[in-house]
Design brief:
The complex is a heterotrimer of chains A (81), B (166) and C (253). Chain A is mainly alpha-helical. Chain A has 2 helices and no strands. Chain B is 85% helix and 0% strand. Classes of the chains: A mainly alpha (81), B mainly alpha (166), C mainly alpha (253). At the A-B interface, helix 2 of A face loops of B.
């Protein structure tokens, strides 16, 4: 195993997870904040808002997961080793 | 270290089929086929019979609701009709009562009037009788002395008492 | 390749937990290799689903009770989902497919999280949620792709390709790319979420074996359920999209 490739893979994995978490984190925060605003404005619509929020949070979460998948590929199934 | 060496050894042994996270092999079509089989099995075992039950219950509830609504309307109509009939009957009863009261009043008035007339007639008759008798028995006031007047009055009144007990 | 893995496994002192990633229990069928642990778990899942269906429909009654009640709730949920995504008129033939997607993924995810598979030792690899294997998720995603192509072609014949140039013709390359990204994102979303759950729980158990991983496990259960819902919802919405646009096109022209 080439140590340079191993080191680069580990670094890249860390970057993939770390940077991949930034965008979805911002998005999820903003979505949750808006949802809370919506619930505060219209408490009777809470059930609907919560369902939509969870669904959209899961979609955003998937973006982080893509980063995680790339990281896992680099760590455990690296094609360059 | 032991782990590592063992792992490396096994990896070397199954070199041509070494594992990994993204190892796509015959599991994929097999899984697809068994998933389609599951769809077919569940369709026969689960979706069709249970869906039929759900639909039947739906239609059952719907027809029952429609029937109940019809029945409610019918019942309301009946209630209205009964109320109308009741009011009608009440009015009739009131009319009957009024008529009977009027009748009774009329009869009573008639009776009273008749009785009064009769009494009047009798009184007049008695008066006439009295007058006649008093004219026959009693002298005029001027030609008689007071005791005789009293006596004759007494007899007159006694006579009248005797003939008219009322 | 397994440097990190070995680092992790030689890190802990108690033999209470072990982290294994990417190790498969291979069966050789002819020239092909299959992942035995995935198939085993999926058979158990399929068996339990069939068993539940048989139990639910064995003695059907107008006023449901017990298993029938539970499965009726599931069926109504699935019907509702399909109805919102595909539409009142067309959803009925797709209820079995979408419902089985939902139920299979849901039971797979929860089986992986709830059943103590570790008690059963395999020669290599370990039993886990079948949806944590890339083969399963790709199979399901490809089936979904086929399903929406089939739906589109059956509804409109070759006119389905009209969808590709539908709002404006330069959308064509994007629409074609979309056909590839749809199954890709479907499969990787499910695979990544389930695998991430298992890994996070595994790492936590490795570090603190008792009690601490419980909240994460609960979160994992929640995520698993949501992922099943998302997969089914997206499949239904793709199918609905493939069938729906044509009517709107007619309405516009």
């Amino acid at each position: 195993m080439n140590p340079t490739i191993a080191a680069a893979s580990v670094l890249a994995a860390a970057l993939a997870v770390g940077l991949g978490a930034v965008g979805p984190g911002i998005g999820q925060g903003s979505a949750a904040g808006r949802a809370v605003e919506g619930i505060a404005r219209q408490p009777e619509a809470e059930g609907k808002i919560r369902g939509t929020l969870l669904l959209s949070l899961a979609f955003m979460e998937a973006l982080t997961i893509y980063g995680l998948v790339v990281a896992l590929v680099l760590l455990f199934a690296n094609p360059f080793v | 270290m032991m782990h590592w060496t063992i792992l490396l050894a096994t990896e070397a042994a199954v070199e041509e089929a070494k594992g990994g996270l993204f190892d796509i092999d015959a599991t994929l079509p097999l899984m697809a086929i068994q998933f389609l089989l599951l769809v077919a099995i569940l369709n026969a075992l689960f979706y069709k019979p249970l869906g039929k039950v759900l639909d039947e219950r739906d239609s059952y509830i719907r027809t029952n609701q429609v029937e109940a609504k019809e029945r409610l309307i019918k019942a309301e109509n009946l209630a209205k009709q009964y109320e109308q009939e009741l009011a009608e009957t009440r009015r009739q009863a009131q009319a009957v009562i009024t008529a009977a009261q009027a009748d009774a009043q009329k009869i009573a008035a008639d009776k009273v009037a008749e009785a009064q007339r009769e009494a009047q007639a009798q009184r007049e008759q008695a008066q006439q009788e009295l007058d006649r008798q008093s004219r026959r028995h009693c002298k005029p006031w001027s030609s008689r002395s007071m005791p005789s007047v009293a006596k004759s009055w007494r007899s007159c009144s006694a006579e009248s008492q005797f003939r008219f007990p009322s | 390749m397994s440097v990190m893995l070995n680092g992790l496994t030689s890190f802990h002192f108690l033999p209470l937990a072990e982290l294994e990633v990417g190790k498969q229990f291979y069966w050789h069928i002819g020239n092909f290799n299959v992942h035995g642990q995935v198939l085993l778990t999926s058979w158990i899942v399929i068996g339990s689903l069939v068993l539940m269906s048989v139990l639910a429909t064995r003695n059907l009654q107008r006023v449901p009770a017990g298993t029938q009640n539970l499965m009726e709730y599931a069926l109504e949920f699935i019907r509702d989902l399909a109805k919102t995504q595909i539409g009142e008129k067309e959803y009925r033939p797709w209820v079995p497919f979408i419902g089985t997607l939902f139920l299979f993924i849901f039971v797979c995810n929860w089986a992986g999280a709830l059943v103590p598979w570790k008690l059963i030792r395999l020669p290599e690899g370990e039993l886990a949620a079948p949806t944590g294997d890339i083969n399963t998720t790709i199979a399901l995603a490809l089936l979904t792709s086929l399903a929406y192509f089939y739906a589109g072609f059956r509804k409109k014949g070759l006119g389905y390709f009209g969808n590709y140039v539908q709002p404006v013709p330069f959308m064509l390359p994007f629409k074609i790319i979309e056909d590839f990204t749809k199954p890709l994102s479907l499969s990787f979303r499910l695979f990544g979420n389930i695998l991430a759950d298992e890994l996070v729980v595994g790492v936590l158990v490795l570090l603190v074996p008792l009690f601490v991983p419980l909240p994460v496990m609960a979160l994992g259960l929640f995520t698993s359920a949501i992922q099943a819902l998302i997969f089914a919802t997206l499949a239904a919405s793709y199918i609905g999209e493939a069938m729906e646009d044509h009517g709107e096109e007619h309405g516009e022209h």
